[in-house]
Amino acid sequence: MLLYLVNPSNPLVSISLNRSSYWNRFRLWKPLGLLVLAGLTSSDWEITILDENLAPIDYEALPRPDVVGITAFTSQAPRAYEIAEGFRARGVPVIMGGIHATMCLEEASARVDSVVTGEAESVWAEVLDDVRAGCLKVRYDGGRATMDQISPARHDLLPDGYAFGSIQTTRGCSLNCSFCSVTEFNGARYRQRPIEAVVEEFKSMPEKRVLFVDDNLIGRLPQHIERAKELFRALAAAGTGKSWIGQTTINFADDEELITLAEKAGCIGLFVGFESVTPEGLPELGKKASMLSGRNIPAAVERIRRHNILVVGSFIIGLDSDRPGVGRLIAEAAGRYGVDNMNVLFLTPLPGTRLWKQLKAEDRIAMGAFPDDWKYYTLNYPVARYKYLSSGQVVREMNDCNGTFYSAANILCRLGRNVLDGRNPLFSLVGNLTSRRNSMLFARVYAALWQSGGQADETESFFGPRPDMVDVWETGSGQLRRLAAALKLQAAWFFRQC
Ligand code: B12
Ligand code: SF4
């Protein structure tokens, strides 16, 4: 029996961006949900994973499978439905699972043969038995798995081409921020996989660099932090020589032993959600306020960076408390905090979140022609009606924020700081250059989108890239050659260290 597991692309982000710069391949991640599903599948099934983010797929040229499983974040849903339609037209039953199908059950059910809501561990074997018996049900609910039910992901099933492997050690988050789907989907209880199972899987992964996908790798309570320390000790003892990145809250910086152990275990970078830089913004978003208010953030960031761990700060534009000028405020705060890289996203009402319920009730969903408009729900588009910022203004704030943080002068300053501190500047530099490049691409995309008439409420000048953002990739070939030579030298130096 042949099973296809498909990760749909969102052409608005994945393929276009990945092709735009060689370095974007470092932002290509394995679809871990499908690898976990494959790990749960009995050996009498032949499994092929099709990841449209890696390359376009000619489905017609592939053998006809017995069944297809499709995953989707919300932004991938329109493409997921196209793929489903194609297979169903060939008489192949299609099953959809993952976060979007769970949050928009009715919509998905109308477009596929069967929907698996929640985590798949407890029901996947039954689903496949039903396929074999020809009695697939329209809905299965996996609820939430117990962590020893999770079998190791099939990391062997995807071809090369990904810079990072992915692994998960915990599920769930108690913080329940208003814009986030995690608490609704994975629950508020912080469920932890047995450490030995994680380490065994980590060792078996072919990649030298790994993303821990946990939403908060260290949790919140003292026992969670002790568990994280145990995990880091075990990873260090395993001596794999692999390096990894993860996501955490800023309380990571409160415990020197934790940071030291993370470094020894191979940690090279952390994503930290700061979300808002105004005192009004944090309470608006939920419980995170208590973690950030009153904290000396620059000192906290520096304590992490001292251990050769890059800090990528994440921020949101478009809160009800955000007013014109917020873009520059965020960029300046990110500079003050000392983060190596900044990720700024539009406040986006994802289905199932508290924010969705609020904005829907207030009739503030601007891009609402579903399912097609889901493709804009990548957090890179202003899909809502913001309180004090029109869509033109909010885009201008975004361009201003990126333009300030990723100005050539600021990138050079961060490069200089790393060199002076004796840190390897390569990762940070590449991150800065690709973010700069991508933000310029997005500025153009916004301009084109609004010019085409879609959501226009302002003139083009609001959306165009800032004139002081000179694109080093496209202009100044001498500059580009010098940059390439510098990167090559850095890369040679870096790989000698590995
Ligand atoms: C790692 C990650 C990424 C990575 C890698 C994604 C990937 N390809 O796997 C990257 C960085 C690329 C990424 C990007 C984005 N992400 Co992201 N990401 C995550 C994160 C942290 C972990 C995902 C993961 O691997 N989980 C582990 C696996 C095992 O769980 P799972 O995928 O849910 O799969 C289980 C079930 O859902 C089910 N299942 C899943 N698929 C299927 C399919 C079938 C057929 C069946 C039966 C079952 C099934 O079975 C699995 C086992 O139980 C989640 C948060 C989270 N906790 O899930 C956010 C999350 C999925 N991301 C989110 C978002 C918003 C995004 C972005 C849109 C925006 C952004 N800038 O971050 C982009 C999307 C870009 C795009 N392609 O359109 C949201 C999605 C919400 C939504 N409604 O869509 C989440 C939930 C975070 C949040 N704050 O709400 N993300
Ligand atoms: S944003 Fe992070 S901290 Fe907030 S609920 Fe989601 S996973 Fe938890």
Explain what the structure shows.
- With 498 residues, this protein is α/β, with parallel strands linked by helices.
- It has 2 domains: 2-143, Rossmann fold (3-Layer(aba) Sandwich); 164-405, Aldolase class I (TIM Barrel), CATH 3.20.20.70.
- Helix content is 41%, strand content 14%.
- The protein has 19 helices and 14 strands.
- It has helices at residues 14-20, 32-39, 77-89, 99-103, 105-109, 124-133, 182-186, 195-204, 222-238, 256-265, 281-285, 289-292, 297-305, 326-337, 354-361, 391-405, 408-420, 426-451, 477-497; strands at 2-7, 46-51, 67-71, 94-97, 114-117, 139-141, 165-167, 170-171, 191-192, 209-212, 243-248, 267-275, 310-317, 341-346.
- The strands form 3 sheets. A 6-stranded parallel β-sheet has the order 2-1-3-4-5-6, with helices on both faces. Strands 7-10-11-12-13-14 form a 6-stranded parallel β-sheet. A two-stranded antiparallel ribbon has the order 8-9.
- β10, α9 and β11 form a beta-alpha-beta unit.
- α14 (326-337) runs parallel beside α16.
- The longest helix has 26 residues, at 426-451.
- The protein is globular.
- It starts with a strand and ends with a helix.
- The model is unreliable at 453-479 and 493-498 (pLDDT under 50).
- Iron/sulfur cluster (SF4) binds at residues 173, 175-177, 180, 182-183, 215-216, 273, 288.
- Residues 173, 175-177, 180, 182-183, 215-216, 273, 288 line the site of iron/sulfur cluster.
